[in-house]
Design goal:
By secondary structure, the chain is mainly α. It has helices spanning about 1-20, 25-30, 35-55.
């Protein structure tokens, strides 16, 4: 049980690091009010793609 929890913890740490280091996600979270709705939409699509790819890796 302890080993399983440690593996889950390591996976969560890895995922959070991937998201933290991804410039697309950081840029989207900053949500610059000067960008257009279209640019915001495109940025969100890139974030969703990154999250989906990461999720597939850690299933």
């Amino acid at each position: 049980m302890s080993e399983k929890l440690e593996a889950i913890n390591q996976n969560m740490l890895s995922v959070s690091n991937i998201y933290f280091l991804d410039s697309k996600i950081r840029d989207w979270l900053r949500n610059d009010a000067r960008i257009s709705e279209y640019e915001r939409y495109k940025s969100l699509q890139e974030v969703i793609e990154t999250v989906n790819q990461t999720g597939n890796y850690f299933k």
